[in-house]
Amino acid sequence: MEQENNDSSRSQSQQLEDEDRLSTLTDDILLSILGRVSFRMAAKTCVLSTRWRHLPWLLPELSIDVKDFLSVPCTEPAEANDMEELAMVSLTKATRSFLADQQRESTISSLHLKLYLINTSLCEVGQLVGDAVDNGLLKDLDLTVLDETDPLGRSDQDMLQRAQEIDTFFRAYPSALDCLTKLSLENAGFDKLDMHHVLFDCCRQLKHLSLCYCDTGMHSVFKIDSPNSKVCVLEIYKGRFERLELVCLPKLEKFVCNTWESEHVPVTFGFVPSLGELELSFCAAYDQRPFKLSELLHGTTSIHTLTLDFQTEILWLQPEIEELRTAFNKLKKLSVCGIFVEFDILWTTAFLVAAPSIEKLRIQVAEHPCEVNFRGGNGMFRDSYSSVGNALRWLQEHAAERARIWWL
Questions:
Q1: Would residue 403 count as lying in a domain?
Q2: Hey, is 59 helix, strand or coil?
Q3: Taking phi first (over 0 means left), then psi (-120 to 50 degrees means alpha), and beta for anything else, what does residue 365 get?
Q4: How many C-beta atoms surround the C-beta of residue 344 within 10 A?
Q5: Phi and psi of 317, rounded to 5°?
Q6: Which residue has the higher pLDDT, 76 or 119?
Q7: pLDDT band for position 374 (50/70/90)?
Q8: Strands 208-215 and 233-237
Q9: Is 44 among the domain residues?
Q10: Residues 262, 270: Cα–Cα separation, whole Å
């Protein structure tokens, strides 16, 4: 009988040992595991055992997303606002816990923070982040200010108010800006504010800036002249600018421009010696006036990756070859996407002629439900050559040896 009890005890002990093999791993391995799950899941692990209790406060990189604290999706605006406020209260508590000086056992190398622009909670979060920076607990901040409202449903006054609240936040917590390396903003109108000062002069450590429905007013001209800026990635989505003038951004490596209001060249480049990757995407109206790509690229000397997306609408570029040789001198990768299936594509071969060093060419042809006759405003490309088959044959004969080509 005693022998049976001993065997049973050993069996239970072995079972417990097998079930908790994770706890025998080193902190480095466990932290690597926790770094791959959501913030809330990582926080919950501290209740598993005393072995796990301190681990969440050792994570070198934190990602706190206010959406993780939303209970259920809500369609009613009033209820949605209440839920967002409650989610921000929960996010504030979590931020306070993880940034508390007395609990942190190591420095946070990077904090990814996604939040709503709710003043009461935002002020406390700003203070917590500022204190963490002052105490040497936080090195880099990645901040995303979310807005769930349909941008088309926001008035100019609403967008101006959001911009003013963002400006107020930046002014109130300058310490937070000292480690702000990535910033994403949505639905903010800087018509009556100095957008350049707010985003480039105040955010001196900024390396990645993403703006969606953020501008200085309809058909406005926005100049960026920041010789000391560290921005290496700039993304502009659905801005109402007539023209963006990148006068001086010496560290800029990648520029994305998606949708613009201009009838002419939407972007001009000045001193951008590091610019190597460019993405242009535009769903043009049937009466859109095409422009020359060489005019847009004037001033660039190091473009190695270029993406042009026509979003299955009309082609907004004029055909050219010789004018592109200088800008395409270092081009290695070219993607031409969203070409409506009824448009010929042999004009894309001009890019291969102008780019002697190209290695990869990706062409995407897409269907569209609209009628062809309505879409044919830019007929110069449609009538240049007879068929897509001709384009394919030309590319196979002249370009296959020096460039890898993908047809989608």
A1: yes
A2: coil
A3: beta
A4: 19
A5: -120, 145
A6: 119
A7: very low
A8: parallel
A9: no
A10: 19
State pTM to two decimals: 0.82
Closest residue by Cα to residue 240 from 164, 337, 159, 147: 159
How many domains are contained in the chain?
1
Strands of the 267-271 sheet, one edge to the other: 220-225, 241-248, 267-271
CA distance 161 to 317: 37
Domain with 310 in it: 280-408
On average, the pLDDT of the chain sits at 80
pLDDT digits (tens, 9 = 90+) for 320-354: 888 898 889 999 999 998 887 766 677 777 888 88
Evaluate whether residue 391 is within a structural domain: yes
* Distance of alpha carbon 47 from alpha carbon 17, whole angstroms: 18
Q: What digits encode the pLDDT tens for the residues 129-171?
A: 999 899 888 999 999 999 988 887 788 899 999 999 999 999 9
Does the pLDDT of residue 69 top 60, yes or no? yes
C-beta atoms surrounding 354 within 10 Å: 21
Angle of helix 119-134 versus helix 156-172 axis, rounded to 10: 30
Q: Could you tell me the two tokens for 86?
A: 């409650």
